Amino acid sequence: MEAKDNLRQLIQMFSTFEENELDRIENCFKTRIFKKNTVLLASDEVCKTFYFINRGCLRTYFITKEGHEKTRYIMMEPSIGTALTSFISQRPSFEFIDALEESEVLAISRTDFYRLADEIPAWKNFYLKIMEMAYSFQNRKIESLVTLSAKERYEQLIRENPKVVQRVSNKILASYLDIKQETLSRLKSR
User: Where is the Cyclic nucleotide-binding domain (predicted)?
Assistant: First the structure.
């Protein structure tokens, strides 16, 4: 299936679109291929792009004052995402986006994204749904960090998203779960 067909299928899960609206939306997205380890957005840059991941894996992460990476979100096909706070506010990002694998994405500019929200009610509804999902996801992640042990967080990830455990390095997986790599290795060996 072609990337733009996958995009259509994904956005139609959130809202109902007319065929001509889907054509307009599709025309705003440009195909981009990123090699593994490509940085799409660096800290202190303003995020101007929203991504649909057709193939591959991107992540958003922070670097602490001590130089440690803290992975906030891992995006695998077929999914969407960006550095939302910077994308919305147009202020410099605190986080990075990079490609964990060679990745094929469809990218839409912030200008086109918001123009579509102004002109197509179904796109505005799509935007609302993804904002609700992002809020819920981040809230659940905070809840798990506060209430679950490292073992419970790892087991939850295996249940909810086993592909992440299979495809992402232990270093990144540990930063996502907010545990030490040694702890992750012990959990994986059990």
Answer: 13-116
Instruction: Say how many domains are in the chain.
Output: 1
Pair of tokens at residue 83: 């550095």
End-to-end CA, the chain = 39
Q: What is the pLDDT of residues 37-93, one digit of tens each?
A: 999 999 999 999 999 999 999 999 999 999 999 999 999 999 999 999 999 999 999
- Is the Cβ–Cβ distance between 165 and 158 less than 8 Å? yes
Pairwise CA distance, residues 101 & 72, whole Å: 17
Read off the CATH number of the domain in which 42 is found.
Answer: 2.60.120.10
Peptide bond just before 78 cis, omega within 30 deg: yes
The domain of 53 spans 3-121
Query: Strand pairing partners for 60?
Result: 73, 97
Q: Angle CA(72)–CA(74)–CA(80) in degrees, nearest 5?
A: 110
